[in-house]
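Open question from group meeting: does this chain pack into something compact, or does most of it stay loose? Before anyone orders reagents, we agreed to write out a predicted structure and look at it together. Recording both the input and the output here so the notebook holds the full record.
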Amino acid sequence: MPLDPGRRHEVMRALAAVPGLLDELDTTLSRGDAVGAPRVTGAAGGGGRRPALPFRKGASDAHAELARTLRYYAVRVAILARRPAPRAPGEQSVFLCRQLPRIPDDAPVLAGIHPALPDAVAAARAAIDRPADRLCIGLCDCGSRLYGVEEQTVVRCPGCDREYAVAERRGSLLAQARDMVGTATELARILPWFSGKPVTANAIRQWAARGKLTGYTVAGETVYRIGDVLRVHEHGRG
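Structure tokens returned:
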């Protein structure tokens, strides 16, 4: 179906959002997928690499689909423009933003770009914004990672088929995680898994501003101990 002005506008808006979304997805993925890194000690300040937070598979899937969609259309448009296609997803989004205004609405190279690209961007945004839905709850004795969702009571190891109680594994994970740290945005995404109650990034920052929490600067980011945030959250101290 040819692009009309409305569809073209949606595609251009989606492309403009890509660099920021890729940064957020990369941040999510870079945190790792298991708890067990060194604890935070000392006063605010310092540097170095900070502990990893639980990994969400949805972000990985959304990143892969967005990258695939960008690559597909960047290559098609590059052939039409007779120039090399950029290799990185962020550069591909910029390339498409620059080239699309020059391409007619009914050009075959744009076939399917709407809704494919806006849908991929929407999925990436949802993977970043929604609460964690499939969270790593530790490692099996065989070394495989265990994933579960809030509704599950039992998870089966994909490597050896051993079964684990989700509540027990979640409790163990929380015991390990209390001294771990994360930014306000990261903790707002994962803490409902532990506490069963929603918490916003803004609330965490407000608690810190009011002296209820201590923030630490690690690798240029302000982070908070999971245990401290849960303590304030569970006591309803705003």
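Observations to bring back to the group:
The longest strand covers residues 135-139.
The helical segments are 5-30, 57-81, 89-99, 113-129, 166-177, 184-195, 201-209, 226-234.
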